[in-house]
Amino acid sequence: MTHVLQLNNSIFGDQGQSSQLASRFLQRIKTTDTEVSVTERDLVQSPVPHLTGTRFQAGLTAPEARTEQQAQEAKLADTVIEELEAADVLLITAPVYNFNITSTLKAWFDHVARAGRTFQYTETGPQGLLRDKTAYVFITSGGQYADTDLDFQAPYIKHMLGFIGITDVHIIRAEGLAMGDQAINDALATAHQSIARLVA
């Protein structure tokens, strides 16, 4: 059985283009694998709180050594890490707002990047601990930023996933969605072709 974790980050919910691309991808997976299970976390409707010093320290404290307050502070971070650990496939909707990733996705990364749990420090540098997972990232944007100096999003997401051990990362883009009907049609057609190729 394949277990999918889907992270939604569009402020437009199911109507967001990134959400629709992820749903299209998931439906195609289900046609080829009837035993797919899905955990969906909407980071807009139920955002992970921004990291604080208290939450950070609580996460680094061994569960058996946490105070009652630390246990409460670490509870959500523990949950999102467990969701990630249990997943075989990660789907991330990643609309571009103001040239970068959403603050909701940044907060999620801040909580799942935990030393000793999802990565470890070694003599040669940090080493990711979450291996044998595949990630698909659905990037949508009003402008066109791929392969330019303004592409801040894809490199960061790939770096953070690699930092925790997920190196099999596929980027599906739909760009130019604010540049007229023809640009929208072309962008979505390209994204649909990428999905069909990846799930073939």
What features would you describe in this structure?
The chain has 200 residues and is an alpha/beta fold. Helices cover 42% and strands 20% of the residues. The chain has 6 helices and 7 strands, in the order βαβααβαβββαβα. The strands form 2 sheets. Strands 2-1-3-6-7 form a 5-stranded parallel beta sheet, sandwiched between helices. The protein has a two-stranded antiparallel ribbon with strand order 4-5. The longest helix has 19 residues. It starts with a strand and ends with a helix. The model has no long low-confidence stretch (mean pLDDT 95).
User: What is the terminal separation in angstroms?
Assistant: 18 Å
Can you give the helix content as a percent range?
40-55%
Quote the beta fraction: 15-25%
- E-strand count: 7
The low-pLDDT segments are none
User: What's the quaternary structure here?
Assistant: single chain
* Shape, principal axes of CA atoms: globular
Give, in order, the helices and strands.
EHEHHEHEEEHEH
Query: Structural class given helices, strands, pairing?
Result: alpha/beta
Strand order of the largest sheet: 2-1-3-6-7
- Per DSSP, the total helix count is 6
Characterize the largest beta sheet: strand count, sense, and whether it forms a barrel.
Answer: 5 strands, parallel
**What would the average pLDDT be, to the nearest integer?**
95
